[in-house]
Amino acid sequence: MDHLVHSDGKFQFVDQGKGEVLLLLHGLFGALSNWSAVVNRFKERYRVMIPLLPINEMPLKQAGLEGLVKFVEEFVEWQNLKDITIMGNSLGGHLALMYALAHPEKTKRLILTGSSGLFENSMGGSFPKRGNYKYIKERVEYTFYDPKTVTKEYVDEVFETTTSIPKAMRIVAIAKSAQRNNMASEIPNIKAPTLLIWGLNDTITPPMVAHEFDRLIPNTTLRFIDKCCHAPMMEHPQKFNDLLEQYLEQNGS
């Protein structure tokens, strides 16, 4: 991550630019660096903020969606943020959905990309095996259309996480929490205008999931990116940013 990471008490976060807030939430195996291209593109006109979710550090009893949403709520309150455009990938999208429902007064827009919340094929169908680098590499590559998108550094980071028993236990607990938390009955109540940017070749949350979000959430715009899997902002950053910028301009900056 080229951007300065601030550390203040319980929070580590990126905070770039000034103006209207874009709050970005990464996924279960995500990192601040997943959003580098978004930060670079939008920091001149927006205040782009990315809290590092405490997925690997939170107490095991709190390791679930509720604990993570509470963390996001505390971060927003601490920073006194208002009129937020909240954007999430994968698990981060699930958290964004929950936050938008709980705090419609603070949520100006919602952006989802490869979001869980309705259905997800977690890690390609199984939880991560500890200590097997080849397996972890295959599972990480499974989330990208072009395996060359995956850097060795990223695979190493996921592998290191999964070799730690406490971290692996938290990941499994959070993944199971997400799978249990189907939001089909709740998301028709979302008030914020919502942009869905999806990989047409997503193997984790397939295109049918995007269509279902589009059907259930009242005010949506759905866009697909071809030859793209579960993390469009990483695989096709320019296309992703073009769609995002067009949407932000059309829906009032």
Describe the structure concisely for a colleague.
By secondary structure, the chain is an alpha/beta fold. Helix content is 40%, strand content 18%.
Written overview of the protein:
The chain is α/β, with parallel strands linked by helices. The model has no long low-confidence stretch (mean pLDDT 91). The chain has a single domain (5-250), classed as Rossmann fold, CATH 3.40.50. Helix content is 40%, strand content 18%. The protein is globular, with a radius of gyration of 17 Å. It has an eight-stranded mixed β-sheet with strand order 1-2-4-3-5-6-7-8, sandwiched between helices.
Query: Helix-strand pattern, N to C?
Result: EEEHEHEHEHHHEHEHH
State the separation between the terminal residues, measured CA to CA: 27 Å
Structural class: alpha/beta
Q: Let me know the number of strands.
A: 8
How much of the sequence lies in strands comes to: 15-25%
Low-confidence runs of at least 5 consecutive residues: none
What Rg do the Cα atoms give?
17 Å
Count of the separate structural domains:
1
Overall mean pLDDT: 91
Q: Mind describing the biggest β-sheet?
A: 8 strands, mixed
CATH architecture: 3-Layer(aba) Sandwich
Any idea what the CATH superfamily is called? Alpha/Beta hydrolase fold, catalytic domain
CATH class: Alpha Beta
Individual helix count: 9
Helix content: 25-40%
Give the strand line-up of the largest sheet: 1-2-4-3-5-6-7-8
* CATH third-level topology: Rossmann fold
* Oligomeric nature of the chains: single chain
